Amino acid sequence: MPNVIPEQERQELASRTIRGRVAIVGVGETVYYKHGQAPEPEVKLALQAILAACADAGLDPRAIDGFASYSNDRNDPSRLAAALGIPELRFSNMQWGGGGGGGSAAVGNAAAAIAAGYADCVVVFRALAQGQFQRFGAAPPAATASGEAALTFPYGLISPAQRFAMRVMRFMHDHGIGPDAQRAIALASYHHAQNNPRAVMHGRPLTPEAYDQSRWIVEPFRLFDCCMENDGAAALILVSAERARDMRQRPAYLLGVAQGSEYRNAARGHNAPTYASSSFTTVAPHLYAMAGVTPKDVSVVQSYENFTGGVLMSLVEHDFFTAEEANEFLTLDNLSAPNGRLPLNTSGGNLAECYMHGLELQIEAVRQLRGQSTNPVPGARVAMVISGPMVTPVSSMLVGTEDVL
Amino acid sequence: MSAPAYYLPAGMPRPVPEPDGLDAPFWEGTRAGELRVQRCRACRGWQWGPEWICHRCLAFDLEWTAVEPRGKIYSWERAWHPVHPALRGHAPYVVVLVELPHAGNVRMVGNLLGDPEQAVQIDAPVEAVFEAHDDATLPFTLVHWRTRR
């Protein structure tokens, strides 16, 4: 169960928080492509997404003075700054480890740099053309495995789906959760993608029957429990709250960001003590404490689907319902915009919009607060993004409209 | 002479000890038919996976102890999609995570021998089966598991 944040830390946060001090003022993305179908090189996609975010913000790209990304993005800020003719580079930041778990952390790192005065205008970006480089879902062709991989690869435990299936299997066993819970999460993403022309799966609806008949990838994950592999790029522009108020778009203020993982989460060979977890049991309480909101205040959630079981555990660990309530709570009706109890992945997410390594989720959270989503949740004031469950470190964030501050 | 029958097909990545020697005693142990786990000489705590320092008492004083190669299934998965070229046409197969209650509840990853479509029960008792790959250029031994009756 989530930890409780001591009162002393809650009080300290008031003076050390980024809450309300930084806002996302621009969002942008390239066309989203199926894996291997991007007609442009990856670095060009990165530049296109950054320019799109600047255009959305009404901002001269030369105003950017900082870059933040995650998962060892191949597109180095110094190259991007040179390419864009940035007059002065002041902040260059990479979130260590965790793959897609770094998405919200990268936003948090950018916000911290602005709050601390390291930079004034930071772009958070991710460019990923899996068709041009090694795919995440296929094994590298190496003949040997060493370290952590030596304990797993020779047994056919190699891909991300295989790495995480046993965590979900144990969680579902411990709490008596059935396959319909995972199915509802997949159906919600596909349902929302049908209204989103950007979505790779736009025009490709998913029925419960098609889900049930889809092939196993690795039990307990069927094909539709697993994210796509795509090509594209996405970017967000962050500035101080003061500056944000004069800009073109309605600002999405950072309420809180938290990153990390539990005690010995990375103990090798699947020895994390808190094994049946999405790695958020210690992170989520910090997020809520910083943001000063409760789960009931959250209007809409974007929760990274590497695999639907990861979303299931993420939502439990962010306290939207208990594990014992999961079978009952997780239905397509409850997860659908506009009127569901907890509208989830309203752009289609990693399953059906685009696997932009999760950064499309931050963009959708911002669009919800602006009323620009293709599946709007009326009156959305607080939006959550949960990044990369089951890895370490993970991260999550909350953004809100001005009246929440 | 026919090729020995292994649980997974030839061509899977083979384990090699790390260049800094951290896990070499584990892999040497498997060659001798032993399941070796780290144990701290200072606090007697068990530790797995391997690390240079004891996470409990921070002593750099870990020994390698052979433990009884028995345990119970902590979790499992049945893999169908071939993510490695060697696995094409071989689906499914079962991976298990085995907990060793007599060694601080450390866990070991391996394959569960037997019918790959068998029903798998969490908490079922299992014992290790050492699968020696003596025909490899650099011979190695994997540790699999089978249900104990």
Strand-helix topology:
The complex is a heterodimer of chains A (405) and B (149).
Chain A (H helix, E strand, L loop, with lengths): L6 H10 L5 E8 L3 E2 L7 H16 L8 E5 L6 H8 L6 E5 L7 H14 L4 E9 L14 E2 L14 H16 L3 H15 L14 H6 L2 E4 L1 E2 L7 E11 H4 L7 E9 L22 H9 L8 E4 L4 H10 L8 H4 L2 H4 L13 H4 L6 H12 L11 E6 L6 E7 L5
Parallel strand pairs in A: 3-4, 3-5, 11-12
Antiparallel strand pairs in A: 1-9, 1-10, 2-9, 5-9, 7-8, 10-13, 12-13
Chain B lengths: L13 E2 L8 H8 L3 E6 L5 E2 L14 E6 L2 E10 L13 E8 L5 E6 L13 E9 L6 E8 L2
Antiparallel strand pairs in B: 2-3, 2-4, 5-6, 5-8, 6-7, 8-9
Summary?
The complex is a heterodimer of chains A (405) and B (149). Chain A is 33% helix and 18% strand.
Considering the chains and any ligands shown, give keywords for the structure.
heterodimer; A: 405 residues; alpha+beta; Peroxisomal Thiolase, Chain A, domain 1; ten-stranded mixed sheet; two-stranded antiparallel sheet; 33% helix; 18% strand; globular; B: 149 residues; mainly beta; five-stranded antiparallel sheet; three-stranded antiparallel sheet; 1 helix; 5% helix
Can you give a write-up of this model?
The complex is a heterodimer of chains A (405) and B (149). Chain A has one domain: Peroxisomal Thiolase, Chain A, domain 1, CATH 3.40.47.10. Chain A is 33% helix and 18% strand. Chain A contains 14 helices and 13 strands. Chain A has helices at 7-16, 42-57, 77-84, 103-116, 160-175, 179-193, 208-213, 241-244, 283-291, 308-317, 326-329, 332-335, 349-352, 359-370; strands spanning 22-29, 33-34, 66-70, 91-95, 121-129, 144-145, 216-219, 221-222, 230-240, 252-260, 300-303, 382-387, 394-400. In chain A, the strands form two sheets. In chain A, strands 1, 2, 3, 4, 5, 9, 10, 11, 12 and 13 form a ten-stranded mixed sheet that branches. A two-stranded antiparallel sheet of chain A has the order 7-8. In chain A, strand 7 and strand 8 (221-222) form a beta hairpin. Chain A is globular. The mean pLDDT of chain A is 96. Chain B has one domain (24-147). The longest helix of chain B is centred in the N-terminal third of the chain and has 8 residues, at 24-31. Chain B has one helix spanning 24-31, and strands spanning 14-15, 35-40, 46-47, 62-67, 70-79, 93-100, 106-111, 125-133, 140-147. The mean pLDDT of chain B is 96. In chain B, the strands form two sheets. Chain B has a five-stranded antiparallel sheet with strand order 7-6-5-8-9, with helices on one face. A three-stranded antiparallel sheet of chain B has the order 3-2-4. Chain B is 5% helix and 38% strand. The chains are: A alpha+beta (405), B mainly beta (149). The A-B interface holds A 137-139, 141-159, 161-162, 165-167, 169-170, 173, 215-220, 264, 267-271, 275-276 and B 8, 12-19, 23, 27, 48-51, 55, 74-81, 83-85, 87, 92-93, 95, 97, 106-111, 122, 142, 144.
